[in-house]
Design goal:
19% helix; 27% strand; five-stranded antiparallel β-sheet
C-alpha cells in the first residue's frame, strides 16, 4: 500500500470544557501533556480512527492529524454538541507531512498509523504507549483494555528495512505499507 496524497488537518479546540472534552475521547492522559502529546482516537470497537499530536496554548488545544482519512472534524463535532467547546479548522502546510516526514518517522522506529488503512488496527498492534490504561473512560476503552489484560492481541506491526522487496515473508506476515526500502509488516507476536 502506498499513500500518494496525504490529507493533514489541524483543529483548535476552544471553550470552558475543552480539557474534559478531549480527555473523554483520546486514549492518552491529557494531564501528561508537556510540549506535545501523541494519542489515538478510537472507534467504539477499539480500532484506530486517528493518531493525533496535541499541543496547548493558553486558551486552546491544537490537534494535528497527519492524514485525515475518516473526517476528524465531523467525528469531533458529534461530541462537541454535548460540551461547551468550539472547534476551528486551520490550514496545514502539506509539505510538513511529505515523503521526508514519513521516512524520518520510520527511520526512528515510529509508525504513524495515519498512513495505514484506518479502522483495521488495534493500538496494541501499533504503539501501546499512546494508551493510558489507568486514566479512565474513552471511546473504545473497554475493548482495548480487555485485549491488553487478557493478552488477546496476536499481531504487531514492525518496521523492516530491505534492500529489495522480499520474495517470501515469514508465515502469517503481510506488508501493510512500503515507502522506499522501508516496509511495515503485520506479524505474529513472538511474546505470546
Amino acid at each position: 500500500m502506498q499513500i500518494e496524497t496525504l490529507n493533514p488537518i489541524k483543529i483548535r479546540v476552544f471553550g470552558e470544557e475543552r480539557f474534559d472534552f478531549l480527555q473523554n475521547i483520546i486514549t492518552n492522559d491529557l494531564t501528561k501533556l508537556k510540549k506535545e502529546l501523541r494519542s489515538y482516537i478510537l472507534s467504539p470497537q477499539g480500532k484506530i480512527l486517528y493518531e493525533i499530536i496535541i499541543t496547548q496554548s493558553d486558551e486552546s488545544y491544537e490537534l494535528v492529524c497527519s492524514n485525515d482519512q475518516n473526517d476528524l472534524p465531523t467525528f469531533l463535532n458529534k461530541y462537541a454538541l454535548l460540551s461547551d467547546v468550539k472547534l476551528i479548522i486551520e490550514k496545514v502546510d502539506k509539505r510538513e507531512f511529505d515523503k521526508n516526514y514519513i521516512l524520518d518517522q520510520l527511520s526512528t522506529g515510529i509508525i504513524d498509523s495515519n498512513l495505514l488503512k484506518q479502522s483495521s488496527l488495534l493500538p496494541s498492534e501499533v504503539n501501546d504507549e499512546l494508551v493510558d490504561y489507568s486514566k479512565g473512560c474513552f471511546v473504545g476503552q473497554e475493548v482495548v483494555s480487555r485485549i491488553k489484560h487478557r493478552q488477546l492481541n496476536k499481531k504487531k506491526l514492525t518496521i523492516k528495512l530491505f534492500e529489495k522487496k522480499p520474495q517470501k515473508l515469514p508465515t502469517n506476515s503481510e506488508i501493510l505499507f512500503q515507502i522506499n526500502n522501508y516496509y511495515i509488516l503485520r506479524e505474529p507476536r513472538e511474546d505470546q
